[in-house]
Design brief:
mainly alpha; Amino acid/polyamine transporter I; 76% helix; disordered N terminus; binds phenylalanine
């Protein structure tokens, strides 16, 4: 191994929390969660999501942290190490490989969407200065035009990847820890400001009712909630495992995992309050006409609503800056998974590894960037059937519906049934003290039964053709 454990980076205690929370909080919280909550009629959907976080996301996150810290390896080496002398042996390395591949693919289109927030940040700055002049459909058309503009798509994708590579090149402590420690508090402060501001919005009351009312939830909604729990917590593809490998032994895994899950959920709910207060400020008829189930509210309708609000000139650019920051701390963790693999398994230097990984992700993201209208062939290709048209959609479908649930399932099964009981209980107690009966709840109940059953059900539903992406 080119990099012995002494040379590997190590997070400070607070640094680990910031980095892991930064990974978890991202476009999933601020962009995806509000729109799927809206599409699933709020209320009960949110409740199911909370249950999924607690019973599925949290235990699997702990499992990833346990393997990562125990082996001090990136995903492939970690699974191989952890499975030594166990049934299956080296074959478990494939679970790690699935994670590295999943991170690679996810990053290739995640950074693309992240690039849009940079572009809209710039747009809003100019609207704030020049005045906002887009009426009615114009905003939607402008967004469509932007998506179909190949050079712009590739350019902003490149920009976002460049910044990500820069941070990862600086390393665990000097790069990831420093940047997330700086950005996460700023992000929290901006979001808090936006939440406080929404108290005065006419839609605030309605937004809260929508979020917390109890109503029916569809089977599809259940699936979507469980699937999103993985995505939003960054579990199922080795990101938490990799960060766990840099965690100090003085830190408690259960306590850290609970903190990460709590903060991730808090931010998701806060983002909903902000978005829905804006959305419910317009009449029901206009809402129906503009929103539907659209995933693009963030770019097609929100800017106009911002500019109708008091202080909109300040709030609009601030908001896109916030989304960009949140996305950056997630893209960093995704690139780190791939780079750490190259460093640990292939013996590359950190610099070479992050450049190579970043360059490859960028190149692989180009077809996604061109599949939103710029290239007819890429925009319409549908190898998995009509449900997913275009390269971008196909990638998203594959990662969200297959890689994440499968990675989570195999991780739960591995730690629940195969990984040494002594090792996992020791690691859980390390930096925490004896967890008592909770160990049985975690491994004996949740990892062994609850998680696999719930995830197998998702996979069965996906095979049955019920996408929840
Ligand atoms: N959790 C991130 C979000 O909510 C996405 C992510 C998934 C990041 C998996 C890393 C690994 O946006």
């Amino acid at each position: 191994m080119a990099n012995g454990s002494n040379e590997r980076g190590r997070f400070g205690q607070l640094g680990f929390i910031f980095a892991a929370v930064g990974s978890a909080i991202g476009l999933g919280n601020i962009w995806k969660f509000p729109y799927i909550t809206y599409a699933n009629d709020g209320g009960s959907f949110v409740l199911v999501y909370l249950v999924a976080i607690a019973l599925i996301g949290l235990p699997i996150m702990m499992a990833e942290l346990v393997i990562g810290r125990r082996t001090r390896q990136s995903p492939v080496g970690a699974f191989i190490d952890a499975a030594k002398g166990r049934l299956g042996g080296r074959a478990w390395g494939a679970v790690g490989a699935l994670g590295v591949l999943g991170s690679f693919i996810l990053l290739s289109y995640y950074a693309l969407i992240a690039g849009w927030t940079v572009y809209y940040f710039g747009q809003c700055l100019s609207w704030s200065v020049r005045g906002f002049d887009l009426e009615g459909q114009a905003l939607g058309e402008a967004f469509g035009g932007f998506l179909a503009n190949g050079p712009l798509q590739v350019g902003f994708h490149a920009l976002f990847m460049l910044v990500t590579v820069g941070v990862v090149t600086l390393g665990v402590r000097r790069g990831i820890e420093r940047v997330t420690k700086l950005l996460m508090p700023v992000l929290g402060a901006i979001l808090l400001l936006l939440v406080v501001n929404s108290f005065w919005s006419p839609g605030f009351g309605e937004a809260i009712r929508f979020l917390f009312h109890v109503g029916p939830v569809t089977g599809h909604g259940l699936l979507e909630a469980v699937g999103h729990a993985f995505f939003t917590l960054s579990v199922g593809m080795g990101a938490m495992l990799t960060y766990g490998s840099y965690m100090t032994s003085r830190q408690s895994i259960p306590r850290s995992a609970v903190t990460i899950c709590f903060l991730d959920t808090l931010i998701a709910i806060m983002a909903c309050v902000v978005m829905f207060s804006i959305i419910f400020s317009v009449s029901a008829a206009e809402r129906a006409a503009t929103f539907g189930k659209s995933a693009t509210i963030l770019f097609t309708t929100l800017p106009r609503m911002f500019y109708e609000m008091p202080l909109g000139v300040v709030l609009a650019p601030t908001f896109y800056l916030l989304v960009g920051f949140a996305a950056l701390t997630s893209t960093i963790s995704l690139l780190e998974v791939v780079a750490a693999y190259l460093i640990d398994q292939r013996g590359l230097s950190r610099r070479k590894a992050s450049l190579l990984a970043g360059g490859a992700v960028f190149a692989f993201g180009i077809p996604s960037a061109l599949s939103l209208g710029a290239s007819g062939a890429l925009s319409t290709l549908a190898p998995l059937g009509e449900r997913t048209a275009g390269f971008f959609d196909t990638m998203d479908y594959t990662v969200s519906n297959w890689v994440l649930p499968l990675g989570g399932l195999l991780t739960a099964i591995f730690v629940g049934w195969f990984f040494s009981r002594r090792a996992s209980s020791q690691e859980l107690a390390e930096g925490h003290g004896d967890v008592g009966r909770w160990y049985f709840v975690w491994r004996g109940v949740l990892l062994r039964f609850v998680c696999p059953v719930a995830i197998l059900w998702i996979i069965w539903a996906v095979i049955g053709g019920r996408s929840f992406a």
